[in-house]
Amino acid sequence: MELLRIKTCRIYVSRSSLPCLWGFPLGLGHHLSRFILLKMKFLATALCLAASALALPAPTEVVTELVQRQTANQITDQYLFSITLPAFTVHRNARDPATLIWDSDGCTSSPDNPFGFPFTPACHRHDFGYRNYKNQNRFTDAGKASIDSNFKTE
């Protein structure tokens, strides 16, 4: 599809009337219509490419959009089973994302640091799993077993 149609015309310029036009040396009998048409097509193409480039999203916008497309279920599973406990703690402290449930009562009926081993971060992740799985209507026997198993390995 051609965006721009130009009616061609022939222009003849004598050497004495105009020595140079758009960097094209002119002499007696030179035909400019083809040269002007090529210049205009080039400019039209360049403008189309520039407009297309401006319409593309910036790389950071693409990354942000991908993160936003993740569902709460996907993020919950990622934070429960795929990232390290220290990385989970960073997300928990930042409440990132705010749409998930981050509250915890720690290690409900057991000591927080038995024999000097800090259980509290693992308890936070365990509570995170229980609360979010319940909120997402995924708290089944299999889901509970996965969360409990992950807690025992931590």
Describe the structure in your own words.
It contains 6 helices and 2 strands. The radius of gyration is 34 Å and the shape is elongated. A hairpin with a 2-residue loop joins strand 1 and strand 2. The chain has a two-stranded antiparallel sheet. It is mostly helical and 154 residues long.
Keywords:
6 helices, 54% helix, 154 residues, mainly alpha, two-stranded antiparallel ribbon
What's this, in brief?
This protein is mainly α and about 150 residues long. About 55% of the residues lie in helices and about 5% in strands.
Q: Helical region count?
A: 6
Task: Summarize the main sheet.
Answer: 2 strands, antiparallel
Intertermini distance: 63 Å
- Look at the structure and give the mean pLDDT: 75
Question: Any idea what the shape is?
Answer: elongated
How would you write the strand order of the largest sheet? 1-2
Low-confidence stretches: 13-21
Question: How much helix is in the residues?
Answer: 40-55%
Reading the helices and strands in chain order gives EEHHHHHH
Q: Calculate Rg over CA atoms.
A: 34 Å
Oligomerization state: single chain
Number of strands: 2
Structural class: mainly alpha
Q: What fraction strand? A: under 5%
Strand and helix map with partners:
Layout: E1 20-21, E2 24-25, H1 33-55, H2 59-69, H3 72-81, H4 85-94, H5 120-135, H6 141-153
Antiparallel strand pairs: 1-2
Helix pairs in contact: 3-5, 4-5, 5-6
